[in-house]
Amino acid sequence: MLRLLVLFLLVGEHGVWAATELLSWQLDGNSRSAWDILWSCATSIFACTWTILHSDVPGRQISEARRTVMFARTWLMALFVPELILGYAFEEFVAARSSRNKYNAVQTMRNAEQQKVAEANDGPTDCDDSSKWTLTQTFCVNASGLSLLTPDDWIYNVRSDDEMVLLIQTGLVSPDDMPQQEIEDHAKQDWLGKLFTFLQVTWFFCNTIARWASQLSVSPLELATFAYCILAMFVYLFWWYKPKDISSPITIPLHCNRDDLPTQLLDTMDAEGWMHRRTPAKKEHTLRVAWQAIQTPFLSDYSEDLETVRERVLEQSKWLHVIVLLGGFMGIAYSGIHLAAWVPTPYSSFIAMGD
After folding, report:
1. How far is CA 110 from CA 137, 174, 313, in A?
2. Between these two residues, 216 and 170, which has the higher pLDDT value?
3. Going along 189-300, which residue ranges are E strands?
């Protein structure tokens, strides 16, 4: 950690302290103006905190006020504690990969059973074994983006891997029920929008590195934005396949009522998770919801989802060490970059003593 901090201090020595004269607010001139620096940093920080967020799918009973407050609260976390968002994105990435492997294993067994039944009945044996669960689909499922609809208009939001495994085993859900095109239609941003934001963040990152390499001055605000860009690029890599801001889940119609579902599946499902299709959303006041958000670490309607993700990740002890190491490294890196803008280097101290 000490070596990493020294490395960032060297960046400050060659970048932040490269200017020998303090300048006031510059509106215009041959060089960069203060407005240019402020605008470039503001847009980059906005891209690193607001547009980079990939929120989960809210429940049908969640009010619009609670959705707005929850997203604003998450944005404040990304603004003041961006390394926490990075850790959360890594947890979701690990959980999505684990779910994909689990679903594909169960799907393969299901296809093999169908193949045997078809051969025993002297029927067609060309069962489709090419249908596999993708990372985008498992991201969508883990983000509460899959609902089941019974003929009597009862809706259930799938919440856990155990429920999905039983749904796949019984043939009620398959990868073909969640096509890629439908997921993209529900999402607020496609891969092109993600690529544009990623390139914007990368441009600022490369521009700062180029100024440091050319012995040009880098302002403290630019260095702080540089720290945001580093974390944002990792967050975007972990969330690249996650659908962005799906407002409503993908609904799969079932051919049987709740009471006709397999007993093992009913025992696994949460009985309180069923909701009628015509149930109206809650009406809540924005200020009351905001006060609840201040009083609690996470909003009650979303804290259960966070615990579910954490349980999926911690099932394998090896990922616990990776999460701790990643969080420690990125936390030290993020803080070290900020310190580089304010800690005087030996060279600058020597010049100040000479003056």
Report:
1. 18, 10, 26
2. 170
3. 250-253, 274-276
